[in-house]
Design goal:
The protein is an alpha+beta fold and 151 residues long. It has helices at 2-62, 66-76, 105-111; strands spanning 81-88, 93-99, 115-127, 132-141. It has a four-stranded antiparallel sheet, covered by helices on one side. Strand 1 and strand 2 (93-99) form a beta hairpin. 10% of the residues are buried.
Length: 151
Amino acid sequence: LTILAAGIFLLTVPLRLEERKIAAVENTLRARRPEVNRILAIQQDLENRKGEVATVEGFKNARPPMITLLKGLTEIIPKNAWITRVKIDEEGVDLEGYAVSASEMLPRLEAARQFRKVEYSSPTVRDARTNMERFTIRMEVAETKEAKPGS
């Protein structure tokens, strides 16, 4: 009977020690769970921000910035012409305005490297009051592979 009791004791002692080790590990896990959740949330936020940065970089590099387009337009348009409306969207640029000779607008815009497929989107009309031609021009923005700051 003593040998049987000693045998049972020797078999249960390692089991009890392992149960205590498991309980200690579970306590440690419970104590660190909020910290782990916080770290996981930070990692998820970091991944989201990396995606946003990639999206912005892709947009920035895919098309010239609007300010660059507007600056280019101001350099191209003759001094005796003025613009009444500029609309820049995904399809291109719509340009409306008045010029002494609207026919000189098209070659200037076609020669600019930032625009392509320049065409009148409606007929030019001479305004009797100002003695100028009213024009409406539609053009596509040429794709650029690199965005140059300040250009």
